[in-house]
């Protein structure tokens, strides 16, 4: 059997060079900060470790590689040293620099939702709308026909509720609607809505409460 001669060809690939500087502890802290800003920064990249600035001993080099492995960073080759040892990545030479890599910033975390409650001292007239998407709404007077109250939390009406009341608008199924005189045009909690035609007349003119139970809107008289 005639063996074919082996053929070797050169290949050039783009790689990202990590260039630690002394003191190594400070450089590792900076690396941790960069990874916190962009956790996927080094994922899927060919990584070269350039230690020319450190001039490390073999023990120091092995320690640095262990630190990188603990951060799930795998080095394909080492540049800038002649130190070689068993289990180390290969030594590379004649690397050419390229443009710096920008670290993408992680979008700022949204501001925490501030829950607030508002109180309307009087009544809400027809055509008026009271909206509080982050908390409860309390109306000391009436909610007239054609008026609307929308709350992220619960709604309390100490007079007659004749208009529209939508509670739990902030996806809060535990929100409730309370009123002293039950005559609403429309009620809503979370994503469930009922019109006056769906509610019947059993509670009309009475003190009542409205809540959700297992995805069903419940209505009951307040004792």
Automatic annotation (TrEMBL):
Keyword Cell division belongs to the record: yes
SUPFAM superfamilies noted in UniProt: Cell-division inhibitor MinC, C-terminal domain
InterPro entries recorded: CAP/MinC_C (IPR016098), MinC (IPR013033), MinC_C_sf (IPR036145), Septum_form_inhib_MinC_C (IPR005526)
The keyword Cell cycle belongs to this UniProt entry's keyword annotation: yes
One Pfam family recorded for the sequence: MinC_C
Transmembrane segments: none
Keyword field: Cell cycle, Cell division, Septation
Septum formation inhibitor MinC C-terminal domain location: 120-218
Family: Belongs to the MinC family.
Quaternary structure note: Interacts with MinD and FtsZ.
Function: Cell division inhibitor that blocks the formation of polar Z ring septums. Rapidly oscillates between the poles of the cell to destabilize FtsZ filaments that have formed before they mature into polar Z rings. Prevents FtsZ polymerization.
HAMAP family the record matches: MinC
Stated name of the protein: Probable septum site-determining protein MinC
Organism of this sequence: Methylobacterium persicinum
């Amino acid at each position: 059997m005639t063996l074919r001669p082996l053929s070797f060809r050169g290949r050039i690939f783009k790689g990202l060079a990590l260039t630690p500087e002394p003191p190594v502890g400070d450089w590792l802290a900076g690396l941790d900060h960069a990874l916190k800003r962009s956790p996927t920064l080094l994922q899927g990249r060919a990584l070269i470790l350039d230690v020319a600035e450190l001039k490390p001993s073999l023990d120091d080099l092995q320690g640095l590689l262990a630190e990188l492995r603990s951060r799930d960073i795998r080095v394909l080759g080492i540049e800038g040293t002649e130190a070689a040892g068993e289990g180390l990545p290969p030594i590379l030479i004649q690397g050419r620099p390229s443009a710096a890599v920008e670290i993408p910033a992680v979008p700022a975390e949204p501001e925490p939702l501030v829950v607030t409650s508002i109180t309307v001292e009087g009544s809400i007239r027809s055509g008026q709308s009271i909206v509080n998407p982050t908390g409860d709404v309390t109306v000391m007077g009436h909610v007239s026909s054609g008026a609307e109250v929308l709350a992220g939390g619960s709604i309390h009406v100490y007079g007659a509720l004749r208009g529209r009341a939508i509670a739990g608008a902030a996806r809060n199924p535990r929100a409730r609607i309370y009123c002293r005189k039950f005559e609403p045009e429309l009620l809503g909690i979370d994503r469930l809505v009922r019109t006056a035609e769906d509610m019947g007349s059993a509670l009309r003119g009475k003190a009542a409460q409205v809540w959700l139970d297992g995805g069903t809107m419940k209505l009951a008289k307040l004792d």
